Amino acid sequence: QMKLTESGGGVEQAGGSLNLSCAASGRPLSDYAMGWYRQAPGMERAWVASIGRDGQTFYSRYVKGRFAISRDDVKNTAYLHMNNLAPEDTAVYLCNAARTTHELGFRGSWGPGTQVTVSS
């Protein structure tokens, strides 16, 4: 079974940047599509971005143009580069691995999450 571990969260000022990592172990990342999700206090988990096994990327309209998802299958790690952060980006960020992009969000493996806090 694949194990995922997020890192890179922290506290950042509005307009700043953070880079999140999602390290995978137990299975080769190249066999999976990857997604990033976030959950703010009192809110449901929301999709942020996805990347297919072929490298095709997809973004939520709330982050398109500010965030970039990428993957390094050699390092077995996926990334979320977050630029021009805003207070509404504050949330726990989680990564998800599934066999296809269509399965992301409701199947596969999840990490425990990393907290991102953006101050105004």
Output the keywords.
51% strand; 4-stranded antiparallel β-sheet; mainly beta; globular; 0% helix; 7-stranded mixed β-sheet; 120 residues
* Helix-and-strand structural type: mainly beta
Q: Could you give a short account of the major beta sheet?
A: 7 strands, mixed
Distance between the termini: 40 Å
Rounded to an integer, what's the Rg over CA atoms? 13 Å
Q: Roughly how much helix do the residues carry, as a percent range?
A: under 10%
Name the average pLDDT.
97
Please give the number of β-strands: 11
Number of helices: 0
- Unreliable stretches covering 5 or more consecutive residues: none
Tell the overall outline. globular
Estimate the strand proportion. Answer: over 45%
Q: Can you write the helix and strand succession as a string?
A: EEEEEEEEEEE
Task: Give a topology summary.
Layout: E1 3-7, E2 10-13, E3 18-25, E4 33-39, E5 46-51, E6 57-59, E7 67-72, E8 77-82, E9 91-98, E10 109-110, E11 114-119
Parallel strand pairs: 2-11
Antiparallel strand pairs: 1-3, 3-8, 4-5, 4-9, 5-6, 7-8, 9-10, 9-11
